[in-house]
Amino acid sequence: MGYNESMKVAKLAGYWEKIEKESSRLKITDILAQLLKEAGASDVDNVCYLSLGRLGPLFANTEFNLAEKMMVKAVAQAYNISNEDATSRFKEVGDLGTVVAQLGDKTKDHGLTVKEVHASLLSTATDVGTGSQERKLDGITKLLRQVDAISAKYLVRIPIKKMRLGFSDKTILDALSVLTSGDKSSKKELESAYNVRPDVGRLAKLVKKEGIEAVDKLQEPELGVPVLMAKAQRASCAEEILLRIGDCAVEPKIDGFRLQIHKQTNSIKLFTRGLEDVTFMYPDIVEASQKQIKADNAILEGEAIAYDPKTGKHLLFQETVQRKRKHGIKKMAKEIPLKLIAFELLYLNGENLLNKKFEHRRKLLEEIISKGDRVVLTEMTHIQLTQDEKLEKLFQQAVKQDYEGIMAKRLDAKYVAGARNFNWIKYKKSYSSNLSDTLDCVVLGYDFGKGKRVEFGIGGFLVGVYDEKNQVYKSISKVGTGLSDDQWRKLKVMAEKLKVSKIPKEYKLTKTTKADVWLQPHIVVELEADEITKSPMHSAKLALRFPRLKRFREDKQPNQATTLTELKKMATKA
User: Fold this and answer.
1) For residue 454, what pLDDT band results from cuts at 50, 70 and 90?
2) Percent of the chain topping pLDDT 70
3) Where does the chain hold its CATH 1.10.3260.10 domain(s)?
4) Integer distance in angstroms from the first to the last C-alpha of the chain?
5) What is the pLDDT of residue 431?
6) Contact (Cβ atoms closer than 8 angstroms) between residue 373 and residue 328
């Protein structure tokens, strides 16, 4: 297929059908590699996005904002059946795609291309203003009428985020490696480029046009494109930190939410660690960044935290998290103001700083933050190799001041995007637990409530960790405690949009693991537990003893949860 030729959507849907029927991760990767080989360079990016059930990279925020009920209505209109009939069919099978496959004409095909379908869906998703819901409904209806039943089966799932093909951006990176090298040997360099510019469609397009050698072009930050944030390893004592990294810089670990700020001459963009563009949510941080960051353009990171403007004292995370909202933003900004505590600089006035030493990056950061009360620098202390007692004292002081603990950074360390390594080490302690840290887990499913929890419709939930090597989620525990009534209700509301009729392909579970309702991997929760024990009941072969919810992690993607490797290390240390 030449550069300007666009694949027919019916052919793409044929690949999707093969993938949906396949459970082997290796075979899925091979099918994707074949698909990427056949796709033309002009629309391989759209092939990637649509296959992931999206219209662009994660940070593009192209949301349809169409409720499932509206999509059922579109199906009814497209196939000339009553809304009641469409609703009944949907309730019976639990998947709108299956309903459409039964109703649609398998031979009907207007020959629509991937480019045309992507443009149609994008136009629908970005339609706003008076009457937009009806126009969106008409747009989906028209598209369903123009494609065959198999294509429609998958396209109808995209607006409601239920593509259900069981793979992620990382699997496409594997497939690109297979395409270019015949195996996964090129995955490391592809992943390295993706971590700096996490746009799998753009990466695929570059590889198709210029070959694997060209990925080096994406190893530099770009304003407006979030860099995958670096992560820290854990330590359980001061001595361990100094043995690992020697002389280091130590900062308090702040219990807020991490933001990456992209400043251009007249604009500010804010991104979460899950690559979500949240600029509109935090107007106070945007305004303060414009005033206090003295640079033409810059990419920096910090922790946003709520504070009391009268005392300057930081507020608890439970109050900070109230600022993450889509409505009533201005009112809440006045009631619960935020400050940004900056600690990293990745890019400054056209210069890539990722490969510069931490000491150098910190010095430049200090130079560009002007005085003010809304954007401030982390307090930093230099600790030498022999000063483990001083480091332990800093930790104790941080805990007394209601920080989570401390973060130690190697002075000569580069900023390695997306990586978890010993350049940064966090030292936290939960005094109600024997574990040295909390875990971020993915909610895989839930059980119906009993007793008082009948009113919530949910009484306990199954959680898992991410097995990076096999790109699957493995269960580690059921959780039934640590939630307030409001949190149970919130979990139920979040879960309603994620229900699926069968266990997702990304879940690797034991035969004894059950849930009344299965969910797509999306909800991430931070858990505390007394200890990690061995368990044949769970596929991770480990379980949490007395797990309890600390908070919802809406800033994280499910594949950014605690990994199986991390869990095993924590179990060894505990």
Assistant:
1) confident
2) 97
3) 1-219
4) 55
5) 40
6) no
List, for residues 362-399, the tens digit of each pLDDT value. 999 999 999 988 999 999 999 998 899 999 999 999 98
Active site residue 253: yes
446 HSE (CA, 13 A, CB side): 28
Q: Which of 253, 409, 505, 508 is catalytic?
A: 253
Kindly report the three-state secondary structure assignment for every residue of 104-156: CCCCCCCCCEHHHHHHHHHHHHCCCCCCHHHHHHHHHHHHHHHCCHHHHHHHC
Question: Which two structure tokens, joined as six digits, stand for 165?
Answer: 């093909």
- Measure the CA–CA gap between 362 and 350, rounded to whole angstroms: 17
The CATH number of domain 439-573 is 2.40.50.140: yes
CA distances from 534 to 308, 465, 476, 529, 539 (A): 44, 15, 10, 14, 11
Instruction: Please tell me the distance from the alpha carbon of residue 157 to that of residue 98, in angstroms, as a whole number.
Output: 10
Domain with CATH 3.30.470.30 in the chain: 231-428
Fold that domain 1-219 belongs to in CATH = DNA ligase i, domain 1 (1.10.3260)
| CA-wise closest residue to 260 among 51, 417, 50 | 417
Bridge pairing between strands 298-306 and 472-479:
unpaired
What CATH topology corresponds to 231-428? D-amino Acid Aminotransferase; Chain A, domain 1 (3.30.470)
